[in-house]
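task queued by scheduler; priority normal; single chain, no ligands, no partner chains; default sampling; output format set to C-alpha cells
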Amino acid sequence: MAYKIEDMGHPVRCLNCGREIPGGRPDKKFCSTDCKNRWHNRKKKQHRGVVEQRVLRILERNHSILDKLERLGIHSVDHYTLIGLGYNLEYVTSYRKSGVHHQYACFDIHYEQTPTRIKKIVRTTIKSSADEGETSE
C-alpha cells in the first residue's frame, strides 16, 4: 500500500539552517541528523548558560557578604543575620568534613558551620602559578 503525501503549498524549512527539507515525512523538522544535533545542543547550551549565570550570581553575592564580614573583623555570625543580609546557605564552592566540623568555602573565604551559625571566617591566600615560580634571594 502506498501513501501519497499532498503538497501543502509551502516548503518545509529546517529549524537549524533554514534550508528547504527535501521529501520525507511532512512533519520533518530538520534536513539532516547533523542539523538536528546542532539545534538541540545549542538549545541545551542556552539553558545551561542561564542556570550557570544564576548560580554564579548567588555565589558572588555570598562571597561579597563574607568579604565584608571578614574585612570588618567579624569571624562569627548567626544564620538569621546572614540570611537577612541576603546570604544563601545552600550555595558554596567547596565542603569537607573534618572530624565533627563542617568546613565550607565560597571561593577564597573559608568558614565552619554549626546548626545555628557560621564561625572562623578566614580568607585564604591563593598563589598563582607566577608566584610559585619566583625565588627569594
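post-processing summary
- The beta strands are 76-78, 94-98, 101-106, 109-113, 117-123.
- The chain has a mean pLDDT of 85.
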